[in-house]
Amino acid sequence: MASDTHEDAATRRRTVVTAGHLGQVSVAQTALTDPDPEVRAAALGALQRMEMLGAAELIAGLKDPDPITRRRSALLAAQSEDALTELRQLLTDPEDAVAEVAAFACGERTDADLETVQMLAVVAVEHEDSLCREAAVAALGSLGHPAGCDAVLAGCSDRATVRRRAVLALAAFEGTQVTAMLTKLTQDRDLQVRQAAEELLAIELGEQL
């Protein structure tokens, strides 16, 4: 019986995905209340494809009880001008995969404000999952808000995968602390970090000539 239910959900999901390509708005809208989270996620994606995803539907998706739907909604929110408040609330989502995508999406938003930057900074420094810290550091670099600089500098002392993101994010900032950190990172034990730091320092020195 469980197998049949799974197959039915898979069929419904395919129907919704197809609807997004065929312009069948009503099919996608109906699927927003489907009992299966993957179908609901597909419905949101289909509406986005048809440029029919409204703020109310996106907000509902960001607040969905299932992380599958919340994660897809966060990804879609990266391309939206709506629901910034609800998106950044997912930075504290109990599911790491959701928080990671929310961090990425916040970095893609052109309307990200100081509160968003401050919340990203907390994730970058304090989150237990390194993928979330990576995503937050990268987002802070993408936004380039001065309030995010300290968190990016802190990321330069994290594990190698985070340091690789952090050193690249430093390109968005300037100042003596940034220059000092780049100089320090030219001696990093990770090759990618060293190379990135050397390249950024070379660019900085070239601009000063």
From TrEMBL:
Segment forming the signal sequence: none
GO molecular function: oxidoreductase activity
Pfam family, one: HEAT_2
Entries under PANTHER family matching the protein: PBS LYASE HEAT DOMAIN PROTEIN REPEAT-CONTAINING PROTEIN, PBS LYASE HEAT-LIKE PROTEIN
Protein name: Unannotated protein
Natural source organism: freshwater metagenome
